[in-house]
């Protein structure tokens, strides 16, 4: 009889990983590319040098932040697809505050702090808009969020090509970069900021504690699993949903803020870089367990960064990592389904 | 058709739901299966009807071993099951429902089928219009439809799971008559119930299950006391009726008007006194649901005032009522009452007043252990609520109630529960009354209404009767009233009932 223990679960997860790799290998072979060479490149691209690994961590920060936020909305039973837009609004609010304060005599640390906080507020407001649409307008949060994502993209582009355009000519490369003193401290010679790392790790720890140990987390879970019963048990249901949106928005906004103050030092059109959608995948893959979010997010970040080398070295499209990531999700879900079937039978 | 079950075993996790069951049902028998909730009756029937497969054991139909993979497979072998909640498609017509489940043919020959249907219905004296929609039928009529469908598909063994729940007395008579007729034609009928009287009046043989085991078989005349003992492993008696108390008013309704899609109710006046039990009787959907939800603040009255403990709470939300000492226990336990996926401990922690931000796990665990013991719940603090049986879920809901309470509102508190659970639950509710809470409950079981209430309100298509003294009312009177009869006499009677 198969026991429902974690080692068997882990074995199934590894099987899913293996299947994803096999399937991607088949695609590589079909495309006439050497699979081993490709994997080696991805591996080297991610972990081959300190520089590369630092870049993986640079991608890990926003991914972990959004995943942390999404764990909260998933707990409340909400599909916060709008997280992508919430990252963008975080970036926009941060840029806005930076632009306002960059020419003042305020100390840079204070400006940065205010800018990051503003980004978090921006993300939260955008998330609460999706929440309000759901609560008061009866708009499903998936549709509302998707719509708001398009609006956020349009808003970003409008700002870059309109009010915040570079003197002379507007360009896809974004707004005017901020002064060097207004960027988050980085490790010498790397693009990685220790502050960003600290914020991301703190975020996931806070979310873990929030969901595991607090009344708030328990109530949120109750709302997510049975809103009707939660209401009858005395939990103010829609307020809790709103709060979960707001909290997720705070974390997504922080991710957007990090992209501005630590990575790009300006607002660019693709500032969210798809970390919102990737965060949804990571949150699902870890089965909404906060503890696993950090390693899985790191793995995904490594795939993203590792595959950057592919077009240069092997003349392969870098979307290969996307294929691998997609396969991974599909196979994990598939294997999970198979596991449950087997459990039922035994 | 002869049905024989040999050495049937079925495990669900650690639970041994069916433990080595042998049962032989000769053709033409009406076989009763008795047992309390969770005794393994449904599991056994699901195995026979192909919903689930036994871990081991054999099924023989007319002495031929068969393996039944699915319900479709079962009907192919001649085994049909009538479920407690009819498995039909309410938005579709009777004839379409009748057609479903029949194999073959892209275009059904509706004319022939309609003829078959009418002929079959006439045979059993069922008056079902093939063109009406199923959602306009009563539960009893839906059962009739389902029986016809199974017969038409060739069922030679008919399994009925708690078929007398939710149907009227006359429909029950007709059902029994039909079943006797079918048995006379050589069909085997398996009648699953926890209602002794039904089993006694209908069945030619009875098997009793307890905790997954077949503990006894009997033939008429049935030794009632012994059957009860076998079901529960001991003797059970109903609690004695308590005298009505006349405490202060907990809830006052003054000229309350309610609206529903189906009807309007107005001018409802009622004083609910501390310590008393008020039963709400009526056919499903006669207005008692809207009434009880209005008492909880879940529905807003369109007129009148609702006063709780002297405070006017008209139009306030449920959570205000809840703070005022009102608790509402819904009928659908897993849909509205409990949160599937959360453990018992987590439920108790949720229902308690919060202290600080972080949950004290040890305290929560201790709390759960205490409540589980006090309410005799079969489960552990870590058990997810959906793993509990219906009776234990209801106990858990009661265990979640806060103290002190002014008013407990319950929808069908004992629906689907066995006698032992019913008695237990009412003893716990009566304790609440002694502590000064008032109870208002809905039940479709008229005997329960009269047994446990001090006063009764009858609902009939949006009309509300004056409160009747339960001790001076009979089941027949109540039955007539919920069917809409004898309401004229009520106005005269109330004159001397009213104080």
Plain-language structure description:
Chain A contains 14 helices and no strands. With 346 residues, chain A is mostly helical. Chain A starts with 5 loop residues before the first helix and ends with a helix. Chain B is of the alpha/beta class and 499 residues long. Chain B has three domains: 230 residues, P-loop containing nucleotide triphosphate hydrolases (Rossmann fold, 3-Layer(aba) Sandwich); 173 residues, P-loop containing nucleotide triphosphate hydrolases (Rossmann fold, 3-Layer(aba) Sandwich); 56 residues, no CATH class. Helix content of chain B is 35%, strand content 24%. In chain B, the strands form four sheets. In chain B, strands 13, 16, 17, 18, 19, 20 and 21 form a seven-stranded mixed β-sheet that branches. In chain B, helix 12 packs across helix 13. The radius of gyration of chain B is 24 Å and the shape is globular. The C terminus of chain B is likely disordered. At the A-B interface, helix 8 and helix 9 of A face helix 10, helix 11 and helix 12 of B.
